[in-house]
Specification:
two-stranded antiparallel sheet, Peroxisomal Thiolase, Chain A, domain 1, 2 domains, nine-stranded mixed β-sheet, alpha/beta, homodimer
């Protein structure tokens, strides 16, 4: 397999984009990435998206995006694995280049969620769960996460306020990210006083929906000047788990994250101690805790300790959500995985401004589909 | 890139499967393919599906299928490109093996359409067209094809009855296929007397919806005994066109089919004269005509001649729809591309029974997404 490099990135601000259609959002990010990569043509396109069938009555985003950005006739498909669709698309693009089939690939993650009524988006998000055995019984997606969080608190003796620092850290970092949806710091007091959504998940435990798109251009490293500094894909791995939580033997372990992280570490030849930045999937604070544990940064049940002790801050042992994470940058579901990649690239290029982490060659992204049922992990490496 | 072989196939009958859920259909086909391939484990899974978000309120089919067939933890995603989702999934699986990333891949196409009200399926199918510039103005997917057919008849002087033999041939072949939805021959008279759906498309011009699943197992050829006869992927190519018909300079040409077929021929080192069987995308008879032209079997505007002269029959110059095609085998949209592959494999293995074609080493499938906006072509080769 060939070495694959990220040669361009692009993103839109995550917001309520009433003035931009699905294709306009995707196009803005895609064309920015292609401009940075200095390519006017790509060999194939992979679009990460989860909800457009329901929320925009538009499927077939491969063709839509290819045509809109002037790449008509280019091979283009959509990849879907619920909220990890973005990373799954990135992984498909990576494989296409690594295989030798194509040399330059565009990957775009896009989601437009705020045009639809809340009830419709709630229904659409629930399609990530088991329609027959979870959703039919009345569970929403927040409710599934609330069940996990409640059990976690019971098993390990945590209070809901012990999760506050995950949200506070994310918001503190988002202040400096012009693309973030919520550039506003929050305090422990605002966390405590935020309204309950689904006990024990309050508004500050949960990430916001949004409209947005992010994109990357991937190319075979052979095409770059041999002495150029570059960002390469050092690890790419995905694993599934049961789609329904009740089928899991250890519902408080993200087994799919453990597996995909372990494989990505092996591919990159490193371990957790080598990761300088970790863009994790903090759709809910409980997922932040479980991700840190699954990726080897904390023992099972001990994820909140890292947050409480400040180890997830920019200056801490494992900086996370350095551009605001899902919590404050925002979570346009099918685009999130590409935002994570874009952010790690910025960190490794030392272009992260006030939330720049220091002195590391490796960054990791982890994107969770469903309630832990499809988890995609990537490790990017800076090569000077 | 490594050589990739099809080592197992499976399919369900296409029908109204009131007693089988989406996962049960997918599982039946997948487990049959794995049994034939004699594998109990696969390295990754690609699911082709278009409509389940709307018609079954179930996304995330990668995880759902992996878990259901006993492959929990396996890397699995859904691939979507409207009605060519099945072939797009096959192509993704092919690339995964060809890249060297994995050795054994399962590809499943599945669709369950008859559980939903007709209005909902019509809405769902229309998501393959341009939501902003076609569907918002009231066009359904049948209407788009009717516009193309009407213009084609005007430009080339055909009558609607000149398309009858496409349907008659498909039904004649489906009689012998136990997996076909409509195993009933039709006559020119029944074609003429069938009700009009959307002028000039009548009921016999159009393929039926249905529930069904088909699956294949792909493996690296190196894993097979060196002297084994095998079916390999000799060509794999996809191309897009504008998602909206009105943006095309030549709306009566399937440019994406011309491009992807030409590239597949080049990869296989052959031309149209070498193809012994062509499983084309006869969703409507007009698409049958356009596909034959785009693939080099007829001049533009002359596709119906092949049908009228009997050249598309099993004994003709280019046998098509040998198991009934979309018209009579049925068109469970996201599964169709895999049915086509399964059928060509059966032909090359000389297991096609009464509709067996003779003496050829190459078969071709072509799967159309949207109104010609995403077309995937595969050439399979028998190696003895």
């Amino acid at each position: 397999m060939r070495e694959v490099a990220v040669i361009g990135i692009g993103q839109t601000k995550i917001d309520e984009h009433w003035d931009k259609s699905l294709r306009e959002l995707a196009g803005e990010a895609a064309l920015a990435a292609m401009a940075e990569a200095q390519v006017s043509h790509v060999d194939s396109i992979y679009v990460g998206n989860m909800l457009s069938d329901i929320s925009n009555l538009q499927a077939h985003l491969g063709s839509m995006v290819a045509d809109w950005i002037g790449q008509r006739f280019t091979d283009a498909v959509k990849i879907e694995s619920a909220c990890s669709s973005g990373s799954a698309a990135f992984r498909a693009g990576y494989l296409a280049v690594a295989s030798g089939e194509v040399d330059v690939v565009l990957v775009v993650g896009v989601e437009k969620m705020t045009d639809s009524p809340v009830s419709e988006i709630t229904t659409a998000l629930a399609t990530a769960a088991d329609a027959d055995w979870e959703v039919d019984h009345g569970l929403s997606f927040v409710a599934l996460n609330a069940l996990i969080m409640k059990r976690y608190m019971y098993e390990y003796g945590w209070q809901s306020t012990d999760f506050a620092e995950f949200a506070i850290n994310a918001h503190a970092n988002a202040v400096h990210n012009p693309y973030a949806r919520f550039r506003k710091a929050i305090t422990e007091s605002s966390f405590k006083n935020s309204p309950m959504i689904c006990d024990p998940i309050n508004l500050m435990d949960a990430s916001p929906v949004g409209d947005g798109a992010a994109a990357v251009v991937l190319a075979c490293s052979d095409m770059l000047p041999s002495n150029a500094s570059k960002i390469i894909v050092a690890g790419s791995s995905a694993a599934t788990d049961s789609i329904a939580i009740h089928s899991r033997k250890a519902p408080l372990r993200l087994s799919a994250a453990e597996l995909s992280t372990q494989k990505a570490y092996e591919q990159a030849g490193i371990g957790p101690q080598d990761i300088g930045v970790f863009e994790y999937h903090d759709a809910f604070t409980i997922m932040a805790a479980l991700s840190l544990e699954a990726a080897g940064f904390a023992e099972p049940g001990q994820g909140p300790v890292l947050a409480k002790e400040g180890e997830i801050k920019i200056t801490g042992r494992i900086p996370v959500a350095t551009f605001g994470g899902l919590k404050a940058r925002g979570h346009p579901v099918g685009a999130t995985g590409i935002y994570q990649i874009v952010e790690v690239v910025q960190q490794l290029q030392e272009k992260a401004g006030k939330t720049q982490v220091t002195n590391h060659d490796f960054g990791m992204t982890q994107n969770i589909g469903g309630s832990g049922s499809n988890i995609v992990t990537h490790i990017l490496k800076r090569v000077n």
